[in-house]
Design a protein that fits this description.
single chain, Rossmann fold, 13% strand, 10 helices, 5-stranded parallel β-sheet
Length: 214
């Protein structure tokens, strides 16, 4: 079963999604949220496979909620389901860790397919939103990587995916202490203060592939 949390501030939208998702034999809705803070709380309580996240919500918006969910539940897939397709909304959502970005006018059967794609490792982005992402990427020239060693580049690539130090260490076959040292060096060389700033810097300057790109 694919365990899903629905986060949307409109009751009618939540009801509609719930009704449809219950018709799918491999889906189970384990929580609902009417704002970003509740989305975080329901996700931490239920640890779902997928969160269907509205972008504009009270208390905390979908972008902030996505950041916090991905920090604490890196294996949970966040699918933005919104009415906005402009670059000012698409890019921050992907940079926050959203694995997919779809518009609310998506056909129900296509939505089900997209959710299953997420579980298979794909990162589906609506065609209109994808165009905005490509425009954003085309504005940045690849950054010279000389300041970072090859191993620091590897660590940064994994950090940008939202992985924890433990997961990075496992992926790169090094100790967590080594990962912490590399991250400290990365912060110093890129003049950033934390993991989020490092990830955003990496995406914007072409240091590594954005987490929203499959």
């Amino acid at each position: 079963m694919i365990r899903i949390v629905i986060a949307d501030d409109h009751h009618v939208v939540r009801r509609g999604l719930l009704f449809f998702l219950k018709t799918q034999k491999d889906f189970e809705v384990v929580g609902e949220a009417k704002d970003g803070q509740e989305a975080i709380e329901r996700s931490l309580e239920t640890q779902p496979d997928v969160v269907l996240m509205d972008l504009v919500m009270p208390t905390k918006d979908g972008i902030q909620a996505t950041k916090e969910i991905k920090q604490q539940l890196p294996d949970t897939h966040v699918l933005m389901l919104t009415s906005f397709s402009d670059r000012d909304h698409v890019v921050p959502a992907i940079e926050a860790g959203a694995a997919g970005y779809q518009l609310k006018d998506i056909e129900p059967d296509e939505l089900a397919s997209v959710i299953r794609q997420l579980m298979s490792g794909e990162k589906p982005v609506n065609a209109v939103a994808q165009t905005e992402l490509e425009k954003e990427r085309s504005e940045y020239k690849p950054h010279i990587l000389n300041p970072l060693t090859a191993r620091e580049q590897d660590v940064l690539a994994e950090l940008t995916k939202g992985k924890s130090n433990k997961d990075i260490a496992s992926t790169l076959f090094v100790t967590e202490k080594t990962v912490k040292t590399h991250i400290s060096n990365i912060f110093a060389k890129l003049s950033v203060q934390d993991r989020t700033q490092a990830a955003l810097y990496a995406v914007k300057h072409g240091l590594t592939e954005p987490s929203g790109k499959g």
